Amino acid sequence: MNRALIERLAYCLRVDSIRATTQAGSGHPTSCLSAADIVAVLFFHVMQYNPENPQQANNDRFILSKGHAVPVVYAAYKAMGIVSDEQLLTLREFDSVLEGHPTRRLYYTEAATGSLGCGLSIGLGMAFAAQIRRQDHYTYVLLGDSECAEGSVWEAAHLAAYYKMHRLIAVVDCNRLGQTGQTMEGHDLKQLSEKFKAFGWNVIEVDGHDVSLLNKAFTQAQAQHKKPTVLIAKTFKGYGVARVQDKNGFHGKAFTPQGLDEVLLELSKKFPAAAQYKGAAWQPHIPSATESFPVCTDFALPVGHQEPQGATRHAYGAAVTLAGSVCRSVVCLDAEVSNSTGAQTFKEAHPERFIECFIAEQNMVAMAVGLATRAMVPFVSTFGAFFSRAFDQIRMAAIGKVPLRLVGSHCGVSIGQDGPSQMALEDIALMQTLPGSIILYPCDKMSTFRLVQLMANYYKGISYLRTTRETTKSLYNQRDQFEVGGCKVLLQNEKSCALVVAAGVTVHEALKAAQLLEKETIFISVIDAYSIKPLDSKTIIAVAKASGNRIITVEDHYIQGGLGQSVAVEIVDTGIQLTMLAVRELPRSGTPERLRAWAGIDAGAIIKEVRTKV
């Protein structure tokens, strides 16, 4: 290693991090100063990386988990010739791709980070992608010591050790200070080291401001072939600027323009050799080119003979298994409930691409982000209720525009006796809020097959499939087509006095109600709103106007943020009357039939509501 060159580059990273944050008037320069030597050694000596082709398959990968320190990474990109000095000084401006925390608006960013605790899981997912493809590059993750209080960090640490992911190398920048004071461990590196050792990691303690020792530590990490490695690097926040170094109260505070020259002069005196370096320029360590892994863009799932009945959760398992046969980029992650979600079928057919994540949903979702960034097609399944604990990771995936495919089973009161802790009753509302997301809710096996196919081909954001625990009758056949933003008009009569809009299990309740009402010569229209987001408002409004100008929505979900409110938004100022049947109180254990009746979302409740205005 050319130590003088690396020290020169670390010095430049400090200077440019300060210049950029001062120009922006905000940012986290002290966090950049502590990490500069680590980033310099990684980017300019350790990593094999092609700056002209960041998507080259065998490039080493880097995730900045402590996303607030991103100016030091932008400074590194400047040193690589990727970012110009003029562009660097647009940090945090509205039209700049150099945002305050990393996002995919900058092409070279691997994943959106900034909500602390996500990065190690993302890196683990990327390492899994390399393992599945039998590639030998490394994945590096730079964490902050404060974020090691996040449980998701230890979910990732536990699973990485369990799967012996030795090509995953983490670095904890132990600069002692968080936003408001000292971190849990402070500079007690041993305490943090013992935690990682307890989770099964190879641990190396190192001076994070000595580039030679850092290089030696990375070499030792690469020599480990049985477990992941973490470098516990002792650093000082604000390193190099005496007025802020190792002092509390300067987190997230940029230096003033008036004091900039003085700060830069102090840095040049602190690192005189680096400031005056005139030696050889940096040259990238470019790995030998390898063939890119094929990207699947057109999933056509062959559908054979379907039984007349079946649970949509089991149909999901069959459909994703077929997707895995069509494309070897498909990978399935599950949180130890695969025999309930239907993912067990995929596990049996494609064990090398099934990842058992155990009961750690936050890590599972963020791992899927890492897999997706490497052109894998991840399907992630668990009980719909349990996605709520991973919502931050889901939210960050949406910020990164990652095409995750999430499948939530056991939705609504219809799961029955297990009770409210297992019932997904807020999942639609959560997924509604995500920019670019789609929400699909099949009512039978065939629609599940078709909707899984739509998910597999959706790359604009997150797709969410809501499945039902119960067996439901088949309504569709192989000739029926489905589309994102579509719906199915199942019943329509010129004498219809109302339109019932339902989805999933309540479609069957609506059809049952229609059959019973017809005996009284009362007719209703029924729409299967299998695409809840986006919603086919045009068809719904047209059918409603021909059905007494009246809509009744019925859903196995809390009224807040569900199907009814989605319809309400679309029919404002149309003059259509809307009634929403949904779960309005905390449910309890009971049979599915009793619970739907209690919640007022069964056929009887629909009939009662229709009769109120006949």
According to DSSP, the number of beta strands is 19
Radius of gyration: 27 Å
- Name given to the CATH architecture of the largest domain: 3-Layer(aba) Sandwich
Major beta sheet, strand line-up:
8-7-9-10-12-11-17
CATH C-level class of the largest domain is Alpha Beta
Q: How would you describe what is shown here?
A:
It contains 22 helices and 19 strands. The chain is an alpha/beta fold and 614 residues long. The chain has 3 domains: 3-275, Rossmann fold, CATH 3.40.50.970; 309-473, Rossmann fold, CATH 3.40.50; 488-611, Rossmann fold (3-Layer(aba) Sandwich), CATH 3.40.50. Helix 18 (505-518) crosses helix 22 (603-611). The model has no long low-confidence stretch (mean pLDDT 96).
What does this entry show, briefly?
By secondary structure, this protein is α/β, with parallel strands linked by helices.
